[in-house]
Amino acid sequence: MTDTPLLKVNDVSKFYGSRIGCRNVSFELWPGEVLAIVGESGSGKTTLLSCLSTRLMPSSGIVEYHMRDGQYRDLARMGEAERRFLMRTDWGFVHQNPADGLRMTVSAGANVGERLMAVGDRHYGNIRATAADWLARVEIDEDRIDDQPRAFSGGMRQRLQIARNLVTSPRLVFMDEPTGGLDVSVQARLLDLVRGLVHDLGLSAIIVTHDLAVARLLSHRMMVMKDGLVIEQGLTDRVLDDPREPYTQLLVSSILQV
Amino acid sequence: MPTPLVVSEVFKSFTMHLRDGITLPVVSGVSFSVKKGECVVLGGPSGVGKSSILKMLYGNYAVDSGQILIEHQGHLVDLAHAAPRAVMEVRRDTLGYVSQFLRAVPRVSALDVVAEPLLARGVAQAEARERASDLLAKLNLPRELWQLPPATFSGGEQQRVNIARGFITDHAILLLDEPTASLDAVNRRVVVGMIAAKKAEGVALLGIFHDEEVRDAVADRILDVSAFSPRKAAA
Amino acid sequence: MADLATYNFAYLDEQTKRMIRRAILKAISIPGYQVPFASREMPMPYGWGTGGVQVTAAILGPNDVLKVIDQGADDTTNAVSIRAFFQKVANVAVTTKTREATIIQTRHRIPEETLSAGQTLVYQVPIPEPLRFLEPRETETRKMHALEEYGLMHVKLYEDIARNGHIATTYAYPVKVEGRYVMDPSPTPKFDNPKMHRSEALQLFGAGREKRIYAVPPYTDVVSLDFEDHPFEIQHFDKPCALCGAEHVYLDEVVLDDKGGRMFVCSDTDHCEDRREHGHAGEMLARQEAAE
Fold first, then answer.
1. How many alpha carbons fall within 13 Å on the CB side of residue C208?
2. Rounded to a whole number, what is the distance in Å from the CA of B194 to chain A's nearest CA?
3. Whole-model pTM?
């Protein structure tokens, strides 16, 4: 196991005027680790995810990323060109609504191939072969490679979005409610797929979800947020089996048993 | 003789915030150790905290105070206070756990469920599957089930998958939570044999066994958990 | 000259011309970069070359010789009316001969005859943004240009090959200018793209409705985008021009009757006439002469 965290988050806060988005969040994410951020809507989990992924500038605090060259970089001080490059090579972002993360009017193959072309891949045959390989890995039939995601079901779109993000072998993937809005059976398939990919590729991931079952299945570690604060964190098994805080106990006791 | 697991003065209670914050004491002053090649069985009436002790040892329950010292790769780790990452590492390399119930993952075959701990430790897939096959065969799980996800298996079949998964690695410490509860006599004997083999390899085992026959066959020592009952301590 | 009194020379007032010239100078300084400018209402509808007309008006001098072509022809409506416009408002000399012209305003073609130093080619551009059909947000496309994020342009070419087996884009084929900006060469056929590369002439592009001017200075690298395994190719025609017998030129299809009769002739009318004057004859012309 490596001894350097991939992401170092130090005292990050985000205020919207006088309203609190998230406050004084600190943690480290290690290579290969999957962190779930749970909490109900408005708890600040999506704000925190945006601050970590540079989609929002934190009001205060520092987020540092361990670059491939071994240096730590303060994300807020990085130039936009470099930051965008990082986002489409070493990072992935899986949106809740696949339409936000896909180009709906270009083919599945081009959706997957775009990142490759963005980093300078100029061989059509290779790009297509890589795209086909990735479609297979996310269980999309190869004969759908030239279809547009408009013609795909919700679950297929979400899987396509994942393939599009993973094609450049990122080291860190952010996911915002990746299974939200999907049927339960489709959810199970997606979760299993994500779990397998994270494991096989040794990805680090930060997953925002309100679904504790998702957190249990995918994450090693959990942070519970309420009113912008992290109120409890720890090993996922521990937080779910032995919740300490009143709010966490309420969350855990609210899970429907089948 | 080396002692890979030492539990010292562990206290545990639950605070039920949804029930006006009442505090339920679970165990207090838990202290014991398990040596290499030894199988210690937790005894005492049900509800006395046997399962809770195993869960604390595996990191699923937090402890209020005390130490849980594990010998991990040549140094001691206090699991009672270790960071999640350290707990994950100890679980991967040193501390195994066979729970009462299998937490089935959708769509993963029984064979891969069993092979997974080896893959996590970097063993090649072909080798991991081969060793998983050996174990499943030994536990008499019908071969036609190996490629199926265990979610729809019977209790006994699931438990055998669970046991195979727990026994496949060479973890130095193994926690067993009623691994034979839903097995027939033949398979119980297989498990007893497997536990004996682990002991011979020098693995430290700590378990809960309600089946007296199994308990007598595997236990080197029975630890009465009633001794750690908070009610008794208060008395 | 009596007509001129009612207009400033070349229609636009001097302040407007200065504004446009500043945009042109900036465009020349940053080859391929789209410079915004305050496009004016012109006495013709959008789509009739208002961008090109404003650029021409801003650079036109009394000694210039103007040629205007539309789809390669000097005698189509658009070409005729723009030529007449500048004759009326600037009283400049006009020509149909490519080599005599100092300024050539064009829609959809680059003349077949190689342009030389001192000549300026003014393109009429409908949609200047090459990334527009894939990325509708102007804020985003500007950022992509600024950060040189051009992966999306290849997505378009990828889609072409995926759908048609080859790059089916035949006009407005994207190019990279001087190794930096990706540029839409206006809806000229890709046949003309190689003519832009290291041309001796100055090339200016005006988009009136979209309010953008961009430029390719003389001797600038203009490279058509492609894939290693699907390299850029220009169109090839099976037959030579039916009138002048020219090969390796861009041909238009002309329907002759309602019985399926057709011929392929030079789209560049000046080039075709020039060849015929020099005694070249294609299949159709030879047949006509034989009939006479």
1. 21
2. 27
3. 0.87
